[in-house]
Specification:
This is Isoprenyl transferase. Its EC number is 2.5.1.-. Keywords: Magnesium, Metal-binding, Transferase. The protein is α/β, with parallel strands linked by helices. It has one domain: Decaprenyl diphosphate synthase-like (Undecaprenyl pyrophosphate synthetase, 3-Layer(aba) Sandwich). It has helices at 17-23, 28-49, 68-87, 109-122, 138-154, 165-169, 217-228; strands at residues 9-13, 53-60, 95-99, 129-136, 182-185, 204-207. Strands 3-4-2-1-5-6 form a 6-stranded parallel β-sheet, with helices on both faces. It is globular. The mean pLDDT is 97. Bound molecules: 3-methylbut-3-enyl trihydrogen diphosphate (IPE) (2 copies) and magnesium ion. One 3-methylbut-3-enyl trihydrogen diphosphate binds at residues 13-15, 57-60, 63, 189, 191, 193.
């Protein structure tokens, strides 16, 4: 058997928690809770097999439009996740990072503080980077980047004609993160839902009907195997 190539950066749209719960006659928030369990296993497995960056879509800028009860349940889950991670921060080796509009007034300040604390406490670790897309929207990210650029131009720190792809990328939340090699979406939806539009231009896409709480390390292996069968050309001819 030939050695398989592990994608350097895997991005995941963790979708289908609601349908998973519905199928089982459970409340949607129970689906989200089980989704967190699935995520925990995927994080340690990805770290173990040598993935350098794992980015997961946890909450989009559009997800605020969901019923208040569901949004509150999700915030509570993130809060609990952060508490748990902070408690075992000395044992784990991955680096935690959030992409998205962390400074929006919609985000409870206690939650923001915990995110910043966990980012800080894990910044010198040597394991995988775990990026959580939280209050993330690709268009929102691009607009926030444009505003920062315009400010730098106004302040004389930057000239408009200096702009290029690399410089633009450095204004995004994903600064210093290589573009994803593989993007996985669970639940059978074939769309990107405002996830990393700038960064996914040459990413390989893998869609599965598996609902996120059922997504196991075996499912991740299947996606990586499929990735290994793809021929990436980046616009070049063979
Ligand atoms: C994904 O599961 C989790 C979040 C968007 C927070 P959904 O809640 O979207 O589940 P479905 O798509 O309704 O099944
Ligand atoms: C995308 O899923 C966002 C997350 C997984 C966090 P959605 O369930 O919000 O996407 P749509 O509404 O089906 O496009
Ligand atoms: Mg969904």
């Amino acid at each position: 058997m030939t050695e398989r190539n592990i994608p350097r950066h895997i991005a995941i749209i963790m979708d289908g928690n609601g349908r998973w719960a519905k199928e089982k006659g459970l409340p949607r928030n129970e689906g989200h809770r089980r989704g967190t369990k699935a995520l925990e296993k995927i994080i340690s497995y990805a770290d173990k097999i040598g993935v350098e960056h794992l980015t997961v879509y946890a909450f989009s800028t559009e997800n605020w439009k969901r019923p208040q009860e569901e949004v509150e349940g999700l915030m509570k889950l993130f809060d609990r996740y952060l508490d748990k991670e902070l408690k075992k921060v000395d044992k784990d080796n991955h680096r935690f990072n959030v992409i998205g509009d962390l400074y929006s007034n919609d985000i409870p300040s206690k939650l923001r503080e915990k995110i910043l604390l966990l980012q800080n406490k894990t910044k010198d670790k040597s394991g995988m980077y775990f990026h959580m897309a939280f209050n993330y929207g690709g268009r929102d990210e691009i607009l926030r980047a444009c505003k920062k650029i315009m400010k730098d131009v106004e302040e004389g720190k930057l000239k408009g004609d200096e702009m290029n792809e690399d410089l633009f990328s450095s204004y995004l939340d994903t600064i210093n993160i290589p573009d994803p090699d593989l993007m996985i979406r669970t639940s059978g939806e074939i769309r990107t839902s405002n996830f990393l539009p700038w960064q996914l231009t040459y990413t390989e896409f893998y869609f599965t009907s598996c609902l996120w709480p059922d997504f196991t390390t075996k499912e991740l292996d299947k996606a990586i195997d499929e990735f290994n069968s793809r021929k990436r050309r980046f616009g070049k001819s063979e």
